[in-house]
Amino acid sequence: MSSILSFARAKREQRPLVMVTAYDAVTARTLHEAGVDALLVGDSAAMVVHGFPSTVHATLEMMRLHTAAVRRGAPEALVVADMPFLSVRRGADAALDAAGELMQAGATAVKIEGVAGHEEAISRLIGSGIPVMGHLGLTPQSVHQLGGNRIQGRSPAAAAQLRADAETLEKLGAFALVLECVPAALAATVTRERSIATIGIGAGRETDGQVLVVTDMLGLDPTFCPSFARRYVDGHRANLRAMRSFVRDVRARRFPARKEVPA
Ligand code: KIV
Question: Which atom of ligand 1 is closest in space to residue 178's alpha carbon?
């Protein structure tokens, strides 16, 4: 079973870390087979699986079910589960309860967006044996407060705040830190300054690792591909071709064929 210690080791050895989101058992099994370092049960599930407009709609029950499915698909993987909207904001006791449910569903660690106001909760979780991954920069649960999904940390004051937040996370004992949509130079500075591993998404080339949303990587949604993501396959086109073939085959009575009929 992979552990969070592998993150510290990878940073020391300058071996780039790979994390990809997963929401279901089959995808989790395939990503683990591909050799990723960690599976992230992102609250992006609310958008890419459930069709909501933002991650604000992720609930604890939604995250618990996806976490359990991912764990069943990849029993040996390091699984990080997102703490959903407001689950940390309600105080350390509520955060502990929510994180406990995600751990019992199969998570190895939880990810928490932001740090201001979360210090006590983060410290309680870590003190209770629950590894915490931080998430700074664009924190999508605050999309309405941020005025949209835009790059963060551009001004000197915002950059200084992000660096201070990263330091706070390290001092609290977080084992890693996602940096989302921040200028590459700022992500590189944080990566150099901090001893915890940084995992970038839209944060340039100099973080300790990279994370992508699996549906972006597989090109499953033709209407959405952020500029920082790379499509490794046109999954939408491949899926559509297969689906149309099935429709044609059934209508033409070519499916099932003789060998597909039980004796
Ligand atoms: O929920 C998610 O997919 C994430 C990644 C963008 C890092 O948090």
Answer: 7
186: domain range? 5-232
- The total number of structural domains that make up the chain: 2
pLDDT digits (tens, 9 = 90+) for 227-250: 999 999 999 999 999 999 999 999
Pocket test for ligand 1, best of 36, 201, 215 (most atoms within 8 A of CB): 201
CATH number, domain with residue 192: 3.20.20.60
Cα separation, 69 vs 167, whole angstroms: 34
Catalytic residue among 76, 180, 193, 260: 180
In the numeric block, which tokens belong to residue 194? 């901090």
Does the annotation mark 180 as catalytic? yes
> Count of CB atoms within 10 A of residue 64's CB?
20
Closest CA to 183 of 197, 213, 165, 163: 163
Q: Of all protein residues, whose CA lies closest to atom 2 belonging to ligand 1? A: 42
> From atom 6 of ligand 1, which residue's Cα is the shortest distance away?
213
Same domain, residue pair 42 and 154: yes
pLDDT tens digit sequence for 52-89: 999 999 999 999 999 999 999 999 999 999 999 999 99
203 & 246 share domain = no
Output the pTM of the full model: 0.97
173 and 260 together in one domain: no
